[in-house]
Design brief:
single chain; about 210 residues; mainly alpha; Jann2411-like fold; two-stranded antiparallel ribbon; two-stranded antiparallel sheet
Length: about 210
C-alpha cells in the first residue's frame, strides 16, 4: 500500500470521507483510531497528515480552539497517540493481551494535565471550578482527553460491542449494533457484493 502524497491529499481526503463509524460520535478515541483510512484499492489516507488537518480534526470535535495554530510536532503527537490506541482496540477485539508500550503511551497521555478541578473567579460567573486550560497546553489537554476516552471505552460495557469492520480492506473500528459488523453502508454493500460473487464463482460448471 503506497502512502498518500501531498499532491493528492485533498483528493484522497475527499474520497476517504465517510460518516463516523457507529460509536465514534460517542467516543472520540474511536474516531481518532479511525483517522487512518484504508481505501478499497489499498491506499492509506491519513486524515491527520498535516498540522492543518490535525487542527481541523481537533476543532471539529471541540478539543481545540479554531485559532490553535498547531505545528507539525503537535500533529505528530496526535498521530502517535492514535498509533498506540489502535493496538489496544485490536487486542480487545481479538482477545489478546494489551501491548505494554501502548498501555504506557496512553497512561502517559493521561497524566499530561492536572485532573483536579481548580477554583476560578470571573465577573460573569463568579466562583466556579474547571480544569486549567492554558493556551500553551492545548495539545496536552486534547491528548489527555482522548486517552481518558480510550481508557473509558476499553473498560466500559461498550468494550463488549467493540469490533473491527468486516469488509476488507477497511481498517476502521466500530461499536456493534445488533449483528452489524460494518462501519458504513459502503462497506456493507461491498461485503455483500463480495459474498454474492463468492457464491456465484463457487457453483459447479453447468449449474
Amino acid at each position: 500500500m503506497r502512502p498518500v502524497t501531498p499532491a493528492d491529499t485533498e483528493e484522497s481526503a475527499e474520497r476517504a470521507a465517510l460518516p463516523p463509524a457507529p460509536g465514534a460520535a460517542r467516543h472520540p478515541a474511536l474516531d481518532l483510531a479511525n483517522s487512518l483510512v484504508v481505501q478499497p484499492g489499498g491506499q492509506r489516507v491519513d486524515l491527520l497528515d498535516t498540522p492543518a488537518a490535525a487542527q481541523r480534526w481537533l476543532v471539529e470535535r471541540g478539543l481545540a480552539p479554531a485559532d490553535a495554530d498547531l505545528r507539525e510536532t503537535c500533529a505528530s503527537r496526535l498521530r502517535s497517540l492514535r498509533d498506540r490506541i489502535r493496538p489496544l482496540l485490536a487486542s480487545r477485539v481479538e482477545g489478546r493481551p494489551a501491548p505494554a508500550d501502548a498501555l504506557a503511551a496512553v497512561n502517559e497521555a493521561l497524566t499530561l494535565v492536572p485532573a483536579a478541578l481548580l477554583l476560578h473567579w470571573s465577573p460573569e460567573r463568579g466562583l466556579y471550578r474547571s480544569t486549567a486550560h492554558p493556551t500553551t497546553q492545548i495539545v496536552e489537554h486534547a491528548l489527555a482527553a482522548l486517552a481518558a476516552d480510550a481508557a473509558d471505552l476499553l473498560t466500559s460495557p461498550d468494550a463488549d460491542r467493540l469490533t473491527a469492520c468486516g469488509s476488507a480492506p477497511c481498517n476502521r473500528y466500530l461499536l456493534r449494533h445488533g449483528r452489524r459488523h460494518w462501519c458504513s453502508t459502503r462497506c456493507g454493500d461491498r461485503a455483500r457484493a463480495a459474498r454474492a460473487y463468492a457464491r456465484r464463482t463457487a457453483r459447479p460448471q453447468g449449474d
